[in-house]
Structure formats: C-alpha cells, structure tokens
Design a protein that fits this description.
This protein is of the alpha/beta class. The radius of gyration is 24 Å and the shape is elongated. One of its GO terms (molecular function) is metal ion binding. This is Peptidase M20. Pfam families: M20_dimer (PF07687), Peptidase_M20 (PF01546).
Length: about 400
C-alpha cells in the first residue's frame, strides 16, 4: 500500500529539519556545494543512483520502479538562494550575510527529497523517475547549464515537471495553467554619451541626462503604442547612474532594466523597437547611444496534455482544498522554461500563504511555510503513481 507523508509525523519533522538547515546555509548560483552534497548524501542513503556535477553543482538521482521497464519522467527542484540580507530573527535564519533563501528553493529541494524518500520505500510503479536538483535558477540559467551538460541525453525523459510555492495562494490551494505560466525574462544595458560641461551653461554641452530622460519616457510607447493591446509586455528601467556633482553635466549616463513577454513575436517587437527608440532619440539630441539587449529566459509554457495530468492528480489530493485553473500568468521569469523547450511537461503553483506566512517571494522577511512540505512531497509521489501506474 502506498504511503504518504502526514502532517506532524516523523517524516514531516525530518523534512522540516532538512529545510531549515538548508535555509540557514543559503548558497547562490553555482556555489551550492554544501546543499548539493546534502542532497546527494540523502539520495545515496536511499539506495538511488546518484550523479553529481551536472551544470556545476546539479544532482540527478534515478529510481527504477519495481514493476519493470517503462516510461521515464523527470521531476525538478531548484536549490539556489538569492543575494539578499535576511531580516528574520528566528533560529534558522541565514548564517551567510548577504545571502538568503527568499524564494523557497529550500522548500522545493526538501519536498522533492521527501518524495524520493517515500518512493524509494515503495517503488510500486513501472518505469523510471529522475529526480533533478538544479542550481542557479535565479538569473544564471542553471537549467540551461544542466541541459548543456547532457541532462536529457544522459537521463532521457518523456516528460518533465516542476513546481513553485506561491504565497499569493493559501496553503492547501494550487494552480495549473494549460499554457503560459511565467514570462520570458530579458535584460538591457544602455549607455548615452554626450559632451559634459557646466550645469549653468547647458548650451555649451550635449546633455546625456536630458537625452536619457527622453528615452526612458519614450520606451513606454513601445508597450502603449506598438504592442497589440490584447497581448502582454513589460519594459522596466530599474537602474540609472550619471554624474557626481550639482553643477556638472556629465559625459555619459548608463541605465538598465528588464523586459517581460510571453509570445516570441512580442519579444522580437520589444527588442527591435527599443533599439530604434534609443538610437534615434540619442541621434536627434546629438548623443551617441549603445544598447545591449540580452535574452535571458524564454517564457515558461506548459503543454496542455501534461498540465491536464497535474490537474487530475491535484483534484484527487485530499490536501488540496481548491484548484485554480488557468489563473493570470505571472510576469516573473523561470528557467524551467529551458527544460520545457526540450521536453513536454508542466509547472504548477503550490499555495504557501498563511496568517504566519504573508511575505512575498524575494522579500527579506520571507520564509517557506513548513506546513506545505508534506503537500508538495505527496504531490510528487501521486504524480509518479499517476504517470507510471500502467
């Protein structure tokens, strides 16, 4: 008979211990040495085939079902933390200044470990499960690095699945999308070069500050006047640096930011029109302009068939009180998108909110809700049973 993790059980207590230990020792992109070692040691103790070093610090563990050969699937969790000072004061807060698990990857890692524990105890399925523990989700494309290292060649899977905790949903709720879940994530760096001079004599200068202000305002016209209003896109300038004195117009201004989109045509439009706006306005003001537009993560797009499989599992889970179908997609980015470009699959949101857990992702006061650990682990177990039961 299949076992699941119950709240306040010994198994739950073990998950809490693992999660809080990982939280207290956060490691950022490609430096998850301690975390990956803990993950690999736990998986090895379960008797799984464990492979280390994919994408630098990634870990993949393989479990074969007791019912013989069959399909192979991948389950993915991210392990990295953020460059952020934690403001919490509880016993398991970060011991590494300037680093913090503010996105719940400590919980994601622990839930997948919990599923590995339960499935290793009772591998009553036909086929193979590859547990994928990924580094560097935050900005540094660890999924892409694992794929480049041969993830899907070494561990062929028919489908791949991921999840993310979602504080906007109460614990006990979940969300599944038939298509777009998270947006494409790109960045831009812009330099405007003029001719500096005295702030009291602007006619003797070519003012890059004024030119930059015109460009920053005009960039919003790409969204409001070039983009089909029935489609989504975001351009946000998030940094600007220029000058050091009250009475000096500087030689140059640099500013940077991010764009978000869902469909490839909108992504292309945003990049093309941004370059036109920056170049032409700078030229009209007598300045020189440089723009570097970097495509970071593609949009995270579920395949409908695999999303339906997640939906079927969640609808049957007693721990899930409400399932949201196709809520508005998030403009946040997620590098699980690289895996979904390679294989069919789905990425779900698992409610994480409660009266004690009200802070959003990336907040210095965020902490993963340990009550959700059994729910996530049990979802993975049930998904394996659903997909590999025949």
């Amino acid at each position: 008979m299949t076992e699941y993790i119950k709240h306040h059980s010994e198994e739950h207590a073990q998950l809490v211990q693992w999660r809080r230990d990982i939280h207290a020792h956060p490691e950022t992109a490609y430096e998850e040495f301690r975390t990956s070692e803990i993950v690999a040691d736990i998986l090895t103790s379960l008797g799984l085939e464990v492979h280390r070093g994919l994408g630098g610090t990634g870990v993949v563990a393989t479990l074969h079902g007791s019912l013989g050969a069959g399909e192979s699937i991948g389950l993915r969790a991210d392990m990295d933390a953020l460059d952020l000072d934690e403001l919490n004061t509880f016993a398991h807060c970060s011991t590494h200044q300037g680093k913090m698990h503010a996105c719940g990857h400590d919980g994601h890692t622990t839930m997948l470990l919990g599923a590995a524990v339960m499935l290793a105890k009772n591998p009553h399925f036909k086929g193979t499960v590859h547990f994928i523990f990924q580094p560097a989700e935050e900005n540094e494309a660890g999924a892409k690095a694992m794929i480049k290292d041969g993830l899907f060649e070494r561990f062929p899977v028919k489908e791949v699945y991921g999840l993310h905790n979602w504080p906007a949903l109460p614990a006990g709720e979940a969300a599944v999308h038939d298509g777009a879940v998270m947006a494409a994530f790109d960045t831009f760096d812009i330099k405007i070069v003029g001719a500096g001079g005295h702030g009291a004599m602007p006619h003797d200068t070519i003012d890059p500050v004024y030119t930059a202000s015109l460009i920053i305002n005009a960039l919003q016209s790409v969204i409001s006047r070039n983009l089909d209003p029935q489609k989504s896109g975001v351009i946000s300038v998030t940094q600007i640096n220029a000058g050091h004195a009250y009475n000096v117009i500087p030689e140059e201004v640099v500013f940077a930011g991010t764009t978000r989109s869902f469909c490839p045509q909108v992504r292309d439009l945003i990049e093309s029109r941004m370059k036109d706006v920056v170049t032409n306005i700078a030229h009209a003001q007598g300045c020189k302009a440089e723009i570097v537009y970097t495509r970071r993560y593609p949009a995270t797009i579920n395949t409908p068939e695999e999303a339906a499989k997640c939906r079927a599992v969640l609808e049957q889970m007693p721990e899930i009180s409400l399932l949201h179908l196709n809520p508005p997609a998030s403009m946040g980015g997620e590098d699980f998108a690289f895996m979904l470009e390679q294989r069919p699959g789905a990425y779900i949101w698992l409610g994480n909110g409660s009266q004690e857990h009200t802070h959003n992702l990336h907040s210095p006061n965020y902490d993963f809700n340990d009550d959700v650990l059994p729910i996530g682990a049990n979802f993975w177990v049930r998904l394996v049973q659903h997909l590999l039961s025949k």
